[in-house]
Write a structure and sequence with these properties.
Blueprint lengths: L2 H23 L6 H7 L5 H6 L37 H10 L2 H9 L6 H6 L4 E6 L6 E3 L3 E10 L5 E4 L2 E4 L16 E7 L2 E5 L18 E4 L3 E10 L6 E8 L13 E9 L5 E7 L9 E8 L7 E9 L8 E7 L2 E4 L3 E3 L2 E5 L7 E3 L2 E10 L7 E9 L2 E2 L3 E2 L8
Parallel strand pairs: 2-11
Antiparallel strand pairs: 1-3, 3-9, 4-8, 5-10, 6-7, 6-9, 10-11, 12-13, 13-20, 14-18, 14-21, 15-16, 15-20, 17-18, 19-20, 21-22, 21-23
Helix pairs in contact: 1-4
Length: 401
């Protein structure tokens, strides 16, 4: 072998060795190491999957090169000089060797994608106690229940910032923009009962950056917390959902957070009940549309007021609508006032067209002064002695009535 060939090999071989080692050491710079660091200690699968670029794992494909020419990548210079005639052939695999490990680490990062789901608290189980699914909650009554958070992992710990709140409620006093139930919710802490927000509100703020009451659970450990709730009579009867969540304390990541829901029926045995809704038209327009309904009043009709609520996708004013009630054989105007859920009319007592014991029958009609841009929704209800009836829809533009 002449001096020029030996000089060429001496320059090429160290460069290949340095390049291969550099690739093996930089494998995790694609973010895999940060995923492992943020994952809970109880997720060994994530930790192990975050090491595809460590040690010699990425260099395994290098021996796949043909013949023994890939030997220079091992850093053994003596193997690089079998004969002077092979010097030109050896130069080609030495230059290609770094390309093979470079492809493999780029394909590995798909494995650690389980990291974010784990950090979202998927190993936490949540159960309710004291309230049954589909059970009843009486308005103005104090309801006690408990929520249990359990770490279902086999090893490691998980931290939880407990969150309990009601979802949007169909019987809320205001339901046009956000239907938040009215009432109180309290959690029993070591120092006593602490007042909480009853409803979730809008967006995901109710589970972001939470730290109040946070605790840590070892593998298999559980924590049970007592709550009590009172829904005021400003609400109407309806269906309500209570939600319990397990966000990681001080975290802004709400994806994959463990949660549980309990559905219940809110009742008021003192509230009026609306039934027998009828109408002469499928929708509200510029032609008068009649409608009627019956109200049963458990506490009698002395303080019974029929209620009519009018709303649309475009905000309506009292000047846009004419509402009338049949009383004494003639149509009489009823005042509509702007409210948080549209226009509302609370009619005076004694306007029923028929009365049978504690039941009263009413007849109304509604007219738009100009053609509405969107469908107009009308709901009927009643109130008596501070108790609200669940409202019933009147018109159905899709003809589903």
């Amino acid at each position: 072998m002449n001096a020029s060939v030996i000089a060429r090999i001496a320059k090429i071989v160290p460069l290949a060795v340095v390049t291969a080692v550099g690739i093996a050491a930089c494998g995790p710079t694609n973010g895999e190491a940060s995923v492992a660091a943020s994952a809970p200690a109880s997720t060994p699968a994530v930790t192990s999957s975050a090491t595809p670029g460590a040690g010699a794992v990425p260099t395994v494909p290098a021996p796949a090169a043909p013949t023994t020419e890939a030997a220079p990548t091992t850093g053994a210079p003596a193997a690089a000089a079998p004969a002077a005639g092979a010097a030109k052939a050896e130069a080609r695999p030495v230059a290609k060797a770094p390309a093979k490990p470079a492809v493999k680490p780029a394909a590995k990062p798909a494995a650690p994608k389980a990291g974010p789901a784990e950090s979202g608290g998927s190993g936490i189980g949540i159960t309710f106690g004291g309230l049954n699914e589909g059970g009843q909650i009486e308005l103005n009554g104090l309801v006690s229940f408990s929520v249990t958070w359990k770490n279902n992992d086999a090893t490691g710990t998980r931290s939880v910032a407990p969150v309990v709140a009601t979802q949007q409620y169909e019987g809320a006093p205001c339901s046009r923009i956000i239907a938040t139930a009215d009432g109180t919710l309290e959690r029993k802490d070591a120092s006593g009962w602490k007042k909480l927000e009853l409803s979730q509100g809008t967006g995901m703020d109710y589970v972001i950056n939470r730290k109040d009451g946070a605790f840590t659970l070892a593998a298999g450990e559980s924590r049970t917390i007592e709550y009590r709730m009172r829904l005021s009579t400003a609400n109407r009867p309806g269906r309500i959902t209570i939600e319990a969540d397990a966000p990681v304390p001080n975290s802004t990541d709400y994806q994959g957070i463990a949660k549980a829901e309990l559905n219940a029926t809110v009742v008021d045995h003192k509230s009026p009940v609306v039934s027998g809704v009828t109408t002469s038209s499928p929708k509200v327009g510029t032609t008068p549309a009649d409608f009627g309904f019956v109200v049963d009043a458990p506490q009698g009709t002395a303080d019974l007021h029929p209620v009519v609520a009018v709303s649309s996708a475009s905000w309506l004013t009292p000047d846009d609508v004419t509402l009338e009630v049949m009383a004494g054989g003639a149509w009489k105007p009823v005042e509509l006032r702007e409210a948080c859920d549209g226009l509302t009319a609370v009619a005076p007592t004694g306007l029923e067209v028929n009365r049978r014991g504690d039941s009263a029958e009413y007849s109304f009609r509604i007219t738009m002064k100009k053609a509405p841009q969107y469908d107009v929704e009308v709901q009927v209800g009643a109130q008596a002695n501070g108790h609200q009836a669940a409202r019933r829809p009147v018109f159905d533009p899709q003809g589903r009535r």
